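P.,

For your records, the input lines for the assembly:
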Amino acid sequence: MAVTSAATPAPRSRDDLAESRAGYALAMPAMAILFIVLLGPSLAVIVLALTDWQLGAPSMNFIGVGNFEQLLADRVFWRSFGNTIIYCLVTVPGSVFLGLGIALLVELAPAGRAFYRAAYFLPVTSTLIAMAVVWEFLLHPSVGLVNLTLELVGLKGVDWLKNPDVALFTLAGIGIWQSVGLNMVLFMAGIQAIPGDLYEAAEVDGAGGAWNRFRTVTWPMLGPTTLFVTVVSSIRSFQVFDTVEVLTKGGPNKATEVLLYTMYTEGFSFFRTGYASAVTVVFVLIVLVLTLAQVRLGERRTHYS
Amino acid sequence: MTRPRSTPVALLRHAVLLAGVVVMLAPFVWMVSTSLKPPNEIFSTDLSLLPRKWFAAENYTAAFTKVPLLRYLMNGVIVTAGIFAAQLVVSLPCAYAMAKLRFRGREVMFTLVLVGLMIPAQVPAIPRYVMLYQVGLLDSYAALILPFVVSAFGIFLMRQFFRTVPDDLVHAARLDGCGEFEILWRIMLPLAFPAMVAFAIISVVAHWNDFFWPLVVIQTGDLATPPLGTLFFRNEEAGSDFGPLMAGTVVITAPLVLLFLGAQRRFIEGMTLTGMKG
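Structure tokens returned:
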């Protein structure tokens, strides 16, 4: 989608003046509300991050970068930051490569295509909180489906959500389960956009066989899609919160503490508003870098479609 | 893609994909299965999909009486419908103006919309909370709806769509004496129906499933949206009574799952757009 538009010359005639007036009348209410509920509060976060304010406290002092100094010295913050990165490092490659693999298999033949697409996509639209409660039951150490199934094949399960070495990876697994369908659909669109004659040309050049076709045509042509899907997945994974709040509350022993969860507890449980705002600023900086990468990639991607 | 197809390859494809489907759907299947079982079968270690003794009536009755499930669903409808209606009323005129009218500052405004598009939903949470606290609106429907009455994504999506409508159509209507508002209402809206459906799906799925914001502003059980209500229910059960709890999650997940199964194409198209949004 092109986002730029033709330059707007200054209105001259009476008609132009009327058009200009109508433009303001129609656009300004939305812009004013956008400022009040989104842009203003987002700017306010930056200001609050420079204060020591606690919600309900009568006074507020500007302390410069004091909150950020405190953050950098806070072991919980670093744990939280590291956990968020680990979560992304598991979830993003997992959901991107599984999504790609499933898309390739589904697109291989028309048989069952609609069924597979619907089945893999279902977790994307379902209410994650309700499904998290279901996962909690599935992961129950003694009566959960996961450990009972493992027992059937002679393996011994663990306490997936209470074992500090495992809990973060369990949440990452649920994250992959939830998002793989979206990546699959994006890859399917990418695969369908590859011109068929490229495969014929590859065949003529002697690149026969499924693996060669994938290596010489599909994978290079999917390059922009793959980058795009990776960035979108990173942004989504970075915002992990729901499963943490419902399943582990950041525990056991901070093993699943992630950035948004830290922001939530500091801001809405301890009401350390200034400090929580500083966490938000760190969070948004990282997401903005990822988003700008996405916009760039989005522009590149449209050249292929 | 045209490929030589042989039976072993086709079989292998189905085998691998079906194995994946089992993993993807297991939580849904097990949720429904558990909601039909009595406690002693739930806490037994043998795996059976169907209950030996049907306990569905008991579990679902318990789910609806232990917590106000219907109330949660109704809150979900009120909040998502309220948000989407407001988003339409606020966003459509703005999107039309940005697509078809020339006025000074239009590009700046559009840039602001794009900036709004990039801000993750949790970023303005703290100031929004402070604002609602100061006007005494925490813990109310207003707290759930007001922060979302404008959607940068909605303005963007509808503007992109309105731009594809030929200018001649707009000019002709003006010559016929139509005002801008009339053009929007009579000409643009009927044309924009498919884009509005995509917008509706994105908005409804996002706000029906939203957990972070209701968790922050709602304390009263009666005002809980479906996800928050699910959490209240879970906390009340404290991991003991899985039958009614799973019955509750079936009821909570059913509306979107049914909607998705009924309108798959539109859902997938719409959700792919959110993927682009990030």
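Two observations worth noting. Chain B has a mean pLDDT of 86. Chain B touches chain A through 107 residues (CB under 8 Å).

Regards
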